[in-house]
Design brief:
Length: 314
């Protein structure tokens, strides 16, 4: 288990006092924003309509569950976060929130979010949320992250569950559509993070996190990025031919996947000398594209659903 004892008294020892913003940061709001949005889309485009207030409550409780996962992750990873430039200023490694307090917040929000989602929607969705929190906090954070370069491949499932949870809130189950939404995020996650690791390899190496770029080198990571773009595209486009798809979504998906494959192809054929010479410009551009990729797919699903009567569906 990670050594979090060093962070227990840090908040009081360093003279800092946690503010409201630190507790918000503890929940990883940037990550949570994608969780909230994809869960909302999964819920809203489901074939079973929900009362808008109940739907809002469901998304809120899913967001709290996502925040709970972030707090538990930050508690356990405080030691490695402290040595990585990208994460050193997070509230636990920076000493603004004691590790034990982060753990307590994570556990409390986990229980609250699961219980309230069960009461607001159904217990299948609540159980799904509980499993997602467990998967991210235990399977990914505790077990996979520090042990295998496949950490982000398997662990990426945690970030892919929210649209399925949203769908389950409305329908009480799963379907081909929700599984394809899961697949879209699941197969997008590895190239997204490996692209980041290409120009952040030093951070992961220093922290002892066995990312693919650290264990197998950047050349292997480049091959994997391109391979995953090829695997991802059929699932993303297939979603366009289901009951939640349509011509607008399909057009957006085809364009985005062509851009993603082209970017992966350019990364595949880059040498390290070329990348270092221009400051990993192509890799950073691909990473920025990956940030828009998932958001635009789910936005297209939402617009397709709302505008279907005017633009047509299947």
């Amino acid at each position: 288990m990670a050594d979090t004892n060093a962070y227990e008294g840090a908040a009081s020892d360093n003279g800092f006092e946690a503010g409201f913003g630190d507790y918000v940061a503890l929940l990883k709001p940037r990550v949570m924003s994608l969780v909230v949005f994809t869960a909302f889309v999964g819920l809203w485009i489901a074939p079973v309509p929900m009362n808008p207030f109940v739907a809002f409550c469901c998304v809120l409780f899913i967001a709290l569950g996502g925040g709970a996962s972030g707090a538990l992750n930050m508690w356990y990873d405080a030691d490695i976060d402290a040595v990585m430039k990208r994460t050193a200023n997070r509230p636990v490694p920076a000493g603004r929130i004691p590790a034990g307090e982060a753990l307590a917040v994570g556990i409390a929000l986990s229980g609250l979010s699961v219980m309230m989602l069960g009461l607001a929607a159904n217990w299948f969705a609540a159980g799904f949320l509980a499993f997602t929190i467990f998967f991210y906090a235990v399977i990914y954070t505790v077990w996979l992250k520090r042990r295998t370069p496949q950490n982000i491949v398997i662990g990426g499932a945690a970030g892919a569950f929210p649209p399925m949870i949203g769908w389950a809130c409305a329908t009480g189950g799963i379907s081909v559509e929700s599984l394809l939404m899961f697949a879209l995020i699941f197969f997008w996650t590895p190239p997204h993070f490996w692209a980041l690791a290409l120009f952040m390899k030093g951070d992961y190496s220093k922290a002892g996190v066995p990312m693919l770029t650290v264990t197998h080198g950047r050349k292997v990571a480049r091959r994997h990025i391109f391979a995953y773009t090829l695997v991802l595209a059929p699932f993303a486009i297939w979603l366009g031919f289901t009951s939640v798809g349509g011509p607008l979504y399909l057009a957006v998906s085809v364009v985005l996947n062509l851009l993603f494959i082209a970017g992966g192809w350019r990364i595949l054929h880059r040498s390290e000398a070329e990348a270092e010479a221009d400051g990993y410009r192509v890799e950073k551009r691909y990473f920025r594209l990956s940030l828009y990729y998932t958001f635009l797919h789910f936005l297209a699903l939402l617009v397709q659903h709302w505008a279907g009567p005017w633009i047509g569906g299947w």
